[in-house]
Amino acid sequence: MKIAILPGDGIGTEIVAEAVKVLKVLDLPFEMESALVGGAAYDAHGHPLPEATLKLAQAADAVLFGAVGDWKYDKLERQYRPEQAILGLRKHLGLFANFRPAICYEQLTHASSLKPELVAGLDILIIRELTGDISFGQPRGRRTAVDGHFPGAPEAFDTMRYSKPEIERIAHVAFQAARKRRGRVTSVDKANVLETFQFWKDVVTEVHAQYPDVALDHLYVDNAAMQLVKAPKAFDVIVTGNMFGDILSDEAAMLTGSIGMLPSASLDRNNKGLYEPSHGSAPDIAGKGIANPLATILSAAMMLRYSLQQPDAAARIEQAVQAVLAAGLRTGDIWSEGTQRVGTREMGDAVVAAITGKTITKT
Ligand code: NAD
Hints:
This protein is α/β, with parallel strands linked by helices. It has two domains: 1-96 and 268-363, Isopropylmalate Dehydrogenase; 101-262, Isopropylmalate Dehydrogenase (3-Layer(aba) Sandwich), CATH 3.40.718. It has twelve helices and 14 strands. Helix 7 links the parallel strand 8 and strand 9. Helix 6 crosses helix 7 and helix 11 packs across helix 12. The two termini are 39 Å apart. Nicotinamide-adenine-dinucleotide is lined by residues 11, 15, 67-70, 83, 86, 259-260, 276, 279-285, 291-292, 295, 331, 333. Nicotinamide-adenine-dinucleotide (NAD) is lined by residues 11, 15, 67-70, 83, 86, 259-260, 276, 279-285, 291-292, 295, 331, 333.
Protein backbone atom coordinates (compact mmCIF):
# COMPACT_ATOMS: atom_id res chain seq x y z
CA MET A 1 0.00 0.00 0.00
CA LYS A 2 1.19 3.45 -0.81
CA ILE A 3 0.09 6.71 0.77
CA ALA A 4 0.78 10.04 -0.92
CA ILE A 5 1.53 12.67 1.71
CA LEU A 6 0.69 16.21 0.57
CA PRO A 7 1.19 18.64 3.48
CA GLY A 8 0.57 21.86 1.53
CA ASP A 9 0.81 25.30 3.11
CA GLY A 10 0.54 27.09 6.44
CA ILE A 11 -0.22 24.74 9.33
CA GLY A 12 -0.53 21.90 6.77
CA THR A 13 3.11 20.93 7.17
CA GLU A 14 2.92 20.98 10.99
CA ILE A 15 -0.24 18.93 11.38
CA VAL A 16 0.57 16.38 8.67
CA ALA A 17 3.94 15.72 10.34
CA GLU A 18 2.03 14.65 13.47
CA ALA A 19 -0.33 12.40 11.52
CA VAL A 20 2.65 10.76 9.78
CA LYS A 21 4.24 10.17 13.18
CA VAL A 22 1.05 8.44 14.34
CA LEU A 23 0.82 6.32 11.18
CA LYS A 24 4.44 5.21 11.52
CA VAL A 25 3.98 3.96 15.08
CA LEU A 26 1.21 1.60 13.93
CA ASP A 27 3.84 -0.43 12.13
CA LEU A 28 1.64 -1.30 9.15
CA PRO A 29 2.96 -2.37 5.76
CA PHE A 30 2.62 0.84 3.82
CA GLU A 31 4.97 3.18 2.11
CA MET A 32 4.63 6.97 2.36
CA GLU A 33 5.90 9.46 -0.19
CA SER A 34 5.58 13.25 0.09
CA ALA A 35 5.14 15.94 -2.55
CA LEU A 36 4.50 19.67 -2.71
CA VAL A 37 1.01 20.99 -3.31
CA GLY A 38 -0.74 24.37 -3.18
CA GLY A 39 1.21 27.57 -2.66
CA ALA A 40 4.38 25.65 -1.76
CA ALA A 41 4.21 23.88 -5.14
CA TYR A 42 3.49 27.13 -6.95
CA ASP A 43 6.57 28.73 -5.36
CA ALA A 44 8.80 25.79 -6.29
CA HIS A 45 7.35 24.70 -9.64
CA GLY A 46 5.02 27.49 -10.83
CA HIS A 47 1.84 25.40 -10.43
CA PRO A 48 -0.28 24.45 -7.38
CA LEU A 49 -0.69 20.89 -8.64
CA PRO A 50 2.51 19.93 -10.49
CA GLU A 51 2.46 16.91 -12.77
CA ALA A 52 4.70 14.90 -10.39
CA THR A 53 2.36 15.53 -7.44
CA LEU A 54 -0.66 14.49 -9.46
CA LYS A 55 1.11 11.33 -10.67
CA LEU A 56 2.04 10.41 -7.10
CA ALA A 57 -1.57 10.93 -5.97
CA GLN A 58 -2.88 8.85 -8.88
CA ALA A 59 -0.49 6.00 -8.19
CA ALA A 60 -1.16 5.91 -4.43
CA ASP A 61 -3.87 3.93 -2.66
CA ALA A 62 -4.79 6.98 -0.59
CA VAL A 63 -3.80 10.61 -0.21
CA LEU A 64 -3.24 12.35 3.12
CA PHE A 65 -3.60 16.07 2.55
CA GLY A 66 -2.90 18.97 4.93
CA ALA A 67 -4.28 22.29 3.75
CA VAL A 68 -3.48 24.86 1.09
CA GLY A 69 -3.71 28.60 0.76
CA ASP A 70 -2.34 31.86 1.98
CA TRP A 71 -3.50 35.42 1.56
CA LYS A 72 -0.30 36.17 -0.38
CA TYR A 73 -1.59 34.12 -3.34
CA ASP A 74 -4.94 35.94 -3.50
CA LYS A 75 -3.87 38.14 -6.40
CA LEU A 76 -2.72 35.24 -8.61
CA GLU A 77 -4.75 34.29 -11.64
CA ARG A 78 -7.40 31.77 -10.51
CA GLN A 79 -5.71 28.76 -12.19
CA TYR A 80 -2.53 29.30 -10.13
CA ARG A 81 -4.19 29.79 -6.75
CA PRO A 82 -3.38 27.10 -4.16
CA GLU A 83 -7.04 26.06 -3.77
CA GLN A 84 -7.06 24.96 -7.42
CA ALA A 85 -4.92 22.00 -6.34
CA ILE A 86 -7.84 20.56 -4.38
CA LEU A 87 -10.24 20.99 -7.28
CA GLY A 88 -7.66 19.43 -9.62
CA LEU A 89 -7.13 16.44 -7.34
CA ARG A 90 -10.88 15.91 -6.93
CA LYS A 91 -11.32 16.02 -10.70
CA HIS A 92 -8.36 13.84 -11.70
CA LEU A 93 -8.95 11.28 -8.96
CA GLY A 94 -12.71 11.12 -9.64
CA LEU A 95 -13.55 11.98 -6.02
CA PHE A 96 -17.28 12.53 -5.83
CA ALA A 97 -18.31 11.71 -2.26
CA ASN A 98 -17.21 13.98 0.55
CA PHE A 99 -17.59 12.55 4.07
CA ARG A 100 -17.68 15.12 6.86
CA PRO A 101 -18.36 13.54 10.24
CA ALA A 102 -19.33 15.91 13.06
CA ILE A 103 -18.57 14.25 16.36
CA CYS A 104 -18.80 16.05 19.68
CA TYR A 105 -16.44 14.49 22.20
CA GLU A 106 -17.79 14.34 25.72
CA GLN A 107 -14.86 16.38 27.05
CA LEU A 108 -15.44 19.17 24.52
CA THR A 109 -19.18 19.79 24.83
CA HIS A 110 -18.46 23.16 26.46
CA ALA A 111 -16.63 24.28 23.28
CA SER A 112 -19.86 24.15 21.29
CA SER A 113 -21.95 27.28 21.05
CA LEU A 114 -25.02 25.09 21.68
CA LYS A 115 -26.18 23.84 25.08
CA PRO A 116 -24.18 20.79 26.19
CA GLU A 117 -27.26 18.56 26.33
CA LEU A 118 -27.95 19.26 22.65
CA VAL A 119 -24.49 18.19 21.48
CA ALA A 120 -23.20 15.68 24.05
CA GLY A 121 -22.65 12.42 22.17
CA LEU A 122 -23.35 14.01 18.77
CA ASP A 123 -22.21 11.75 15.93
CA ILE A 124 -23.51 12.68 12.49
CA LEU A 125 -22.11 12.19 9.03
CA ILE A 126 -22.68 14.67 6.23
CA ILE A 127 -22.16 13.24 2.76
CA ARG A 128 -21.78 15.97 0.17
CA GLU A 129 -21.79 15.37 -3.58
CA LEU A 130 -18.63 16.96 -4.92
CA THR A 131 -18.61 16.98 -8.69
CA GLY A 132 -21.91 18.49 -9.81
CA ASP A 133 -24.36 21.23 -8.91
CA ILE A 134 -24.02 24.96 -9.43
CA SER A 135 -20.25 24.97 -8.86
CA PHE A 136 -19.53 23.14 -12.11
CA GLY A 137 -22.65 23.50 -14.26
CA GLN A 138 -22.20 25.15 -17.64
CA PRO A 139 -22.94 27.67 -19.02
CA ARG A 140 -21.74 30.25 -16.54
CA GLY A 141 -20.30 33.70 -16.88
CA ARG A 142 -21.09 37.37 -17.29
CA ARG A 143 -23.18 38.99 -19.99
CA THR A 144 -25.69 41.75 -20.64
CA ALA A 145 -29.16 40.81 -19.45
CA VAL A 146 -31.71 40.43 -22.22
CA ASP A 147 -34.65 39.85 -19.85
CA GLY A 148 -35.30 39.74 -16.09
CA HIS A 149 -35.87 42.81 -13.93
CA PHE A 150 -33.16 44.94 -15.54
CA PRO A 151 -32.78 44.16 -19.27
CA GLY A 152 -29.59 45.72 -20.65
CA ALA A 153 -27.79 45.63 -17.28
CA PRO A 154 -24.58 43.62 -16.77
CA GLU A 155 -25.34 40.32 -15.01
CA ALA A 156 -23.60 37.13 -13.89
CA PHE A 157 -25.07 33.64 -13.98
CA ASP A 158 -24.31 30.00 -13.04
CA THR A 159 -26.10 26.79 -13.94
CA MET A 160 -27.39 24.31 -11.37
CA ARG A 161 -27.57 20.79 -12.78
CA TYR A 162 -27.38 17.16 -11.72
CA SER A 163 -27.53 14.05 -13.89
CA LYS A 164 -29.35 10.93 -12.74
CA PRO A 165 -26.16 8.78 -12.45
CA GLU A 166 -24.50 11.49 -10.33
CA ILE A 167 -27.41 11.44 -7.87
CA GLU A 168 -27.68 7.65 -7.93
CA ARG A 169 -24.04 7.05 -7.03
CA ILE A 170 -24.04 9.48 -4.09
CA ALA A 171 -27.35 8.03 -2.87
CA HIS A 172 -25.83 4.53 -2.88
CA VAL A 173 -22.84 5.81 -0.92
CA ALA A 174 -25.16 7.38 1.67
CA PHE A 175 -27.38 4.32 2.11
CA GLN A 176 -24.35 2.05 2.41
CA ALA A 177 -22.73 4.37 4.98
CA ALA A 178 -25.97 4.46 6.99
CA ARG A 179 -26.00 0.66 7.10
CA LYS A 180 -22.71 0.79 9.02
CA ARG A 181 -24.15 3.39 11.40
CA ARG A 182 -27.66 3.91 12.79
CA GLY A 183 -29.48 3.13 9.54
CA ARG A 184 -31.02 6.51 8.78
CA VAL A 185 -30.51 8.88 5.83
CA THR A 186 -31.86 12.42 5.55
CA SER A 187 -31.71 13.75 2.01
CA VAL A 188 -31.54 17.54 1.91
CA ASP A 189 -32.93 19.41 -1.08
CA LYS A 190 -34.85 22.48 -2.17
CA ALA A 191 -37.45 20.57 -4.13
CA ASN A 192 -40.12 23.16 -3.41
CA VAL A 193 -38.30 25.75 -5.55
CA LEU A 194 -35.61 24.11 -7.69
CA GLU A 195 -36.23 21.68 -10.54
CA THR A 196 -32.75 20.20 -10.02
CA PHE A 197 -33.59 19.29 -6.43
CA GLN A 198 -37.05 17.90 -7.19
CA PHE A 199 -35.17 15.56 -9.54
CA TRP A 200 -32.62 14.89 -6.76
CA LYS A 201 -35.43 13.93 -4.37
CA ASP A 202 -37.10 11.65 -6.95
CA VAL A 203 -33.84 9.83 -7.74
CA VAL A 204 -32.84 9.39 -4.07
CA THR A 205 -36.33 7.97 -3.38
CA GLU A 206 -35.95 5.56 -6.31
CA VAL A 207 -32.51 4.33 -5.11
CA HIS A 208 -33.91 3.91 -1.60
CA ALA A 209 -36.07 1.02 -2.85
CA GLN A 210 -32.86 -1.05 -2.88
CA TYR A 211 -32.23 -0.31 0.81
CA PRO A 212 -35.40 -1.30 2.68
CA ASP A 213 -33.37 -1.70 5.88
CA VAL A 214 -32.39 2.01 5.86
CA ALA A 215 -34.86 4.74 6.84
CA LEU A 216 -35.07 7.76 4.53
CA ASP A 217 -36.55 11.17 5.09
CA HIS A 218 -36.31 14.42 3.14
CA LEU A 219 -35.79 17.96 4.41
CA TYR A 220 -35.65 21.29 2.63
CA VAL A 221 -32.25 22.88 3.11
CA ASP A 222 -33.57 25.84 5.12
CA ASN A 223 -35.31 23.48 7.53
CA ALA A 224 -32.20 21.27 7.69
CA ALA A 225 -30.12 24.32 8.68
CA MET A 226 -32.61 25.01 11.50
CA GLN A 227 -32.83 21.40 12.68
CA LEU A 228 -29.04 21.18 12.82
CA VAL A 229 -28.97 23.79 15.56
CA LYS A 230 -32.28 22.76 17.17
CA ALA A 231 -31.88 19.00 17.50
CA PRO A 232 -28.68 17.87 15.77
CA LYS A 233 -28.67 14.45 17.42
CA ALA A 234 -31.83 13.55 15.51
CA PHE A 235 -29.67 13.09 12.38
CA ASP A 236 -27.56 10.09 11.42
CA VAL A 237 -26.42 10.47 7.77
CA ILE A 238 -27.27 13.60 5.79
CA VAL A 239 -26.82 13.41 2.01
CA THR A 240 -27.01 16.49 -0.14
CA GLY A 241 -25.68 18.34 -3.16
CA ASN A 242 -22.44 20.20 -3.55
CA MET A 243 -23.50 23.70 -2.50
CA PHE A 244 -25.92 22.78 0.31
CA GLY A 245 -23.33 20.29 1.59
CA ASP A 246 -20.63 22.93 1.60
CA ILE A 247 -22.70 25.15 3.86
CA LEU A 248 -24.33 22.52 6.11
CA SER A 249 -21.06 20.69 6.76
CA ASP A 250 -19.48 23.89 8.10
CA GLU A 251 -22.55 24.55 10.22
CA ALA A 252 -22.33 21.01 11.60
CA ALA A 253 -18.61 21.53 12.21
CA MET A 254 -19.39 24.41 14.53
CA LEU A 255 -21.73 22.23 16.61
CA THR A 256 -18.66 20.38 17.76
CA GLY A 257 -16.87 23.51 18.94
CA SER A 258 -13.63 23.32 17.05
CA ILE A 259 -12.83 22.96 13.42
CA GLY A 260 -9.45 21.66 14.60
CA MET A 261 -11.12 18.35 15.54
CA LEU A 262 -12.88 17.53 12.29
CA PRO A 263 -11.57 15.07 9.72
CA SER A 264 -12.92 14.59 6.22
CA ALA A 265 -12.64 12.17 3.33
CA SER A 266 -13.37 12.44 -0.38
CA LEU A 267 -13.85 9.08 -2.05
CA ASP A 268 -13.98 7.72 -5.59
CA ARG A 269 -16.08 4.78 -6.79
CA ASN A 270 -13.47 2.27 -5.54
CA ASN A 271 -13.06 3.84 -2.09
CA LYS A 272 -9.73 5.35 -2.95
CA GLY A 273 -9.73 8.66 -1.18
CA LEU A 274 -8.20 11.95 -0.26
CA TYR A 275 -8.20 12.58 3.48
CA GLU A 276 -7.82 16.02 4.98
CA PRO A 277 -8.84 18.08 7.98
CA SER A 278 -11.97 20.16 7.43
CA HIS A 279 -10.15 23.39 8.21
CA GLY A 280 -7.82 25.46 6.04
CA SER A 281 -4.17 26.40 6.27
CA ALA A 282 -4.74 28.90 9.13
CA PRO A 283 -2.07 31.40 8.05
CA ASP A 284 -2.75 33.37 11.25
CA ILE A 285 -1.19 30.63 13.41
CA ALA A 286 1.14 28.94 10.91
CA GLY A 287 4.68 28.31 12.15
CA LYS A 288 3.77 28.90 15.78
CA GLY A 289 3.49 25.23 16.71
CA ILE A 290 0.04 25.70 18.25
CA ALA A 291 -2.29 24.23 15.60
CA ASN A 292 -4.49 21.34 16.60
CA PRO A 293 -3.29 18.23 14.72
CA LEU A 294 -6.22 16.03 15.79
CA ALA A 295 -8.40 16.65 12.72
CA THR A 296 -5.52 15.46 10.54
CA ILE A 297 -4.74 12.51 12.80
CA LEU A 298 -8.44 11.55 12.70
CA SER A 299 -8.36 11.95 8.91
CA ALA A 300 -5.54 9.39 8.87
CA ALA A 301 -7.81 7.09 10.89
CA MET A 302 -10.59 7.54 8.30
CA MET A 303 -8.03 6.72 5.61
CA LEU A 304 -7.17 3.45 7.34
CA ARG A 305 -10.86 2.59 7.63
CA TYR A 306 -12.22 3.57 4.20
CA SER A 307 -9.30 3.15 1.78
CA LEU A 308 -6.75 0.86 3.40
CA GLN A 309 -9.07 -1.68 5.04
CA GLN A 310 -7.44 -1.40 8.45
CA PRO A 311 -10.44 -0.80 10.74
CA ASP A 312 -8.59 -1.99 13.86
CA ALA A 313 -5.74 0.45 13.31
CA ALA A 314 -8.30 3.22 12.68
CA ALA A 315 -10.01 2.41 15.97
CA ARG A 316 -6.66 2.46 17.79
CA ILE A 317 -6.07 6.02 16.60
CA GLU A 318 -9.59 7.13 17.52
CA GLN A 319 -9.32 5.60 20.98
CA ALA A 320 -5.91 7.26 21.46
CA VAL A 321 -7.45 10.64 20.61
CA GLN A 322 -10.22 10.00 23.17
CA ALA A 323 -7.53 9.09 25.70
CA VAL A 324 -5.53 12.30 25.25
CA LEU A 325 -8.70 14.36 25.58
CA ALA A 326 -9.68 12.40 28.69
CA ALA A 327 -6.20 13.08 30.09
CA GLY A 328 -6.93 16.80 29.81
CA LEU A 329 -4.53 17.73 26.99
CA ARG A 330 -5.74 20.57 24.78
CA THR A 331 -4.35 22.74 22.00
CA GLY A 332 -5.31 26.43 22.24
CA ASP A 333 -8.43 26.14 20.07
CA ILE A 334 -10.08 23.66 22.47
CA TRP A 335 -8.44 24.77 25.70
CA SER A 336 -10.59 25.59 28.73
CA GLU A 337 -9.95 26.29 32.41
CA GLY A 338 -8.57 23.26 34.23
CA THR A 339 -7.05 21.57 31.18
CA GLN A 340 -3.43 21.47 30.07
CA ARG A 341 -2.47 23.59 27.09
CA VAL A 342 -0.12 21.81 24.68
CA GLY A 343 1.36 22.56 21.27
CA THR A 344 1.01 20.70 17.98
CA ARG A 345 3.99 18.43 18.54
CA GLU A 346 3.12 17.58 22.13
CA MET A 347 -0.40 16.66 21.07
CA GLY A 348 0.98 14.34 18.37
CA ASP A 349 3.41 12.81 20.87
CA ALA A 350 0.56 12.22 23.32
CA VAL A 351 -1.47 10.36 20.67
CA VAL A 352 1.59 8.24 19.86
CA ALA A 353 2.08 7.56 23.58
CA ALA A 354 -1.57 6.54 23.95
CA ILE A 355 -1.22 4.12 21.03
CA THR A 356 1.97 2.58 22.34
CA GLY A 357 0.53 2.36 25.86
CA LYS A 358 2.82 4.92 27.46
CA THR A 359 1.58 7.33 30.12
CA ILE A 360 0.00 10.61 29.08
CA THR A 361 0.68 13.65 31.25
CA LYS A 362 -2.43 14.56 33.22
CA THR A 363 -3.21 17.95 34.66
P1 NAD B 1 -8.98 28.33 8.25
O1 NAD B 1 -9.77 27.08 8.47
O2 NAD B 1 -7.62 28.17 7.74
O3 NAD B 1 -8.94 29.16 9.63
C1 NAD B 1 -10.10 29.64 10.29
C2 NAD B 1 -9.78 29.88 11.77
O4 NAD B 1 -9.66 28.63 12.43
C3 NAD B 1 -8.45 30.61 11.99
O5 NAD B 1 -8.60 31.47 13.09
C4 NAD B 1 -7.48 29.51 12.32
O6 NAD B 1 -6.42 29.91 13.16
C5 NAD B 1 -8.38 28.50 13.02
N1 NAD B 1 -7.91 27.11 12.79
C6 NAD B 1 -8.03 26.41 11.65
N2 NAD B 1 -7.48 25.21 11.80
C7 NAD B 1 -7.01 25.14 13.06
C8 NAD B 1 -6.31 24.14 13.79
N3 NAD B 1 -5.98 22.95 13.28
N4 NAD B 1 -5.96 24.41 15.06
C9 NAD B 1 -6.26 25.60 15.63
N5 NAD B 1 -6.92 26.58 14.98
C10 NAD B 1 -7.29 26.35 13.70
O7 NAD B 1 -9.87 29.22 7.26
P2 NAD B 1 -9.53 30.64 6.61
O8 NAD B 1 -8.78 31.48 7.58
O9 NAD B 1 -10.81 31.10 6.07
O10 NAD B 1 -8.60 30.29 5.38
C11 NAD B 1 -7.18 30.34 5.41
C12 NAD B 1 -6.62 29.81 4.12
O11 NAD B 1 -6.96 28.43 4.02
C13 NAD B 1 -7.20 30.48 2.87
O12 NAD B 1 -6.17 30.65 1.93
C14 NAD B 1 -8.24 29.50 2.38
O13 NAD B 1 -8.44 29.58 1.01
C15 NAD B 1 -7.58 28.20 2.75
N6 NAD B 1 -8.49 27.06 2.91
C16 NAD B 1 -8.00 25.86 2.50
C17 NAD B 1 -8.77 24.73 2.69
C18 NAD B 1 -8.18 23.42 2.27
O14 NAD B 1 -6.98 23.34 2.07
N7 NAD B 1 -8.98 22.38 2.15
C19 NAD B 1 -10.03 24.81 3.29
C20 NAD B 1 -10.47 26.06 3.75
C21 NAD B 1 -9.69 27.20 3.57
